[in-house]
Write a structure and sequence with these properties.
There is one protein chain. The protein is α/β, with parallel strands linked by helices. Helix content is 37%, strand content 14%. The protein has 2 domains: 138 residues, Aspartate Aminotransferase, domain 1, CATH 3.90.1150; 228 residues, Type I PLP-dependent aspartate aminotransferase-like (Major domain) (Aspartate Aminotransferase, domain 2), CATH 3.40.640. It has a 7-stranded mixed beta sheet, with helices on both faces. It has a 4-stranded antiparallel beta sheet with strand order 11-12-15-14, with helices on one face. Helix 1 runs antiparallel to helix 11, helix 4 runs parallel beside helix 10 and helix 11 packs parallel to helix 13.
Length: 390
């Protein structure tokens, strides 16, 4: 009961301090997301519902492509600049890619691995941060998996125990997709750097929902898609590679946008553009600029505060109903926008998931459990509706 009262107190406090998000209040921001007209959408960790600003900009591009293709707006520089403004680093340290997996794959394939090298990754990370490293075993590279605790936390001491002088890359998710555990990026970065390794982050469940700064957090490389918390659509994404790391990772799929415009010689650009290939889905990337602008307008720190208030409410409600929470939630710095819980068995979880679905409350199933992930446009009333159905 004490825990429940504490979470209620936090919820009330955050609610009182969140009258506005930047220059746009919650009601105004919510109008941009028509998904709420048909459902209670609490599955933002899977995919962000299309918002009206992004949709308008997509239609804008399609109209130009249909009527005046020679007037289509430039996209690449605009996206890089927006990303740099949100997450730090220089704009020319950002390459445009189509997914998190592509970004991580470029790094795994492009590093100059030598016999005896190893890479360290927390166990049971998302497939995009697992498969590219496992593929290195075919080249004789050791893949070391750091175990997680019983409470699903990534223990930095256990990670540090695996990092040695032969570790070339320490790779981690900013937020684990199944439990929502938020990693201590600064600490993990220092662990990697103390041994001369690069620190790489799978940012897809963190970027856009809590503050990340490439330089302050000691991130050498970060791969991320745009279709979750960054308010874009599938097919958009980026690979951040800082200047020192660029010297260690060669391009693996160079195309016309990776190098200077010579016909008989290959002169890579002296920045992260070298990791780009050919034509991207310009319509999607142009539309994405509206999502990135919205994030900048709202402020990622404000979004994070809002989401913490909503997850406070979820946690309090689950505790009140004595429903077991799987996500580590005791420390606020380890929390994200994802809460995973169980009704006691896979069968009970499936039945609960189906009941929620039948009542147009959209959540996800992950690892046999239920995953709920609100975003800033969700309301306290929607959270209460979700809790009532449990």
């Amino acid at each position: 009961m004490t825990i429940y009262l504490n979470f209620v107190t936090f919820t009330i406090f955050r609610k009182m301090t969140l009258i506005n998000i930047s220059n746009m209040n919650i009601t105004e921001a919510r109008k941009l997301f028509p998904v709420h007209e048909k459902s209670v959408f609490l599955n933002n960790a899977a995919e962000s519902p299309l918002n009206e600003r992004v949709r308008h900009r997509l239609n804008e591009y399609l109209a130009l492509a249909s009527e005046s293709p020679h007037l289509k707006p430039p996209v690449r520089k605009a996206v890089r600049t927006a990303l740099s403004g949100l997450f730090g680093g220089a704009s020319n340290e950002y390459a445009l890619v189509t997914s998190t997996g592509v970004g991580i794959g470029i790094v795994a394939s492009g590093y100059n691995w030598q016999k005896g090298d190893n890479v360290v990754v927390p166990i049971d990370e998302h497939w995009n941060n697992t498969f590219p490293w496992l593929a290195l075993r075919e080249r004789g590279i050791e893949v070391r998996f750091a175990p997680v605790d019983e409470d699903q936390r990534v223990d930095t001491e256990k990670v540090a125990a695996l990092v040695d002088k032969n570790t070339r890359i320490l790779a981690t998710a900013a937020v684990r997709f199944n439990t929502g555990f938020r990693a201590d990026l600064k600490l993990l970065g220092s662990i990697a750097h103390d041994k001369g390794a690069l620190f790489m982050v799978d940012g897809i469940q963190g970027a856009g929902v809590f503050p990340i700064n490439m330089e302050e957090d000691g991130i050498d490389i970060l791969a991320c898609a745009g279709f979750k918390w960054l308010l874009g659509m599938p097919g958009t994404g980026f690979l951040y590679v800082n200047k020192p790391a660029q010297e260690k990772i060669r391009p693996v799929l160079p195309g016309m946008f990776a190098a200077e415009n010579h016909m008989r010689e290959l002169h890579y650009f002296p920045d992260a553009r070298r990791y780009e290939t050919g034509t991207i889905a310009y319509s999607l990337f142009h539309a994405w600029t509206a999502g990135l602008e919205l994030l900048d307008e709202l402020g990622v720190e404000n979004i994070h505060t809002r989401v913490l208030a909503l997850t406070d409410r979820i946690i309090a409600g689950l505790h009140a109903k004595q429903i077991a929470i799987v996500s580590p939630v005791e420390k606020v710095e380890e929390r994200s926008a994802i809460i995973s819980f169980t009704m006691g068995s896979e069968k009970a979880n499936l039945d609960c998931y189906q009941k929620l679905w039948d009542h147009n409350v959209i959540v996800a199933q992950r690892n046999g459990r239920i995953r709920v992930s609100p975003n800033f446009y969700n309301t306290e009333g929607e959270i209460d509706r979700f809790l009532e159905l449990l």
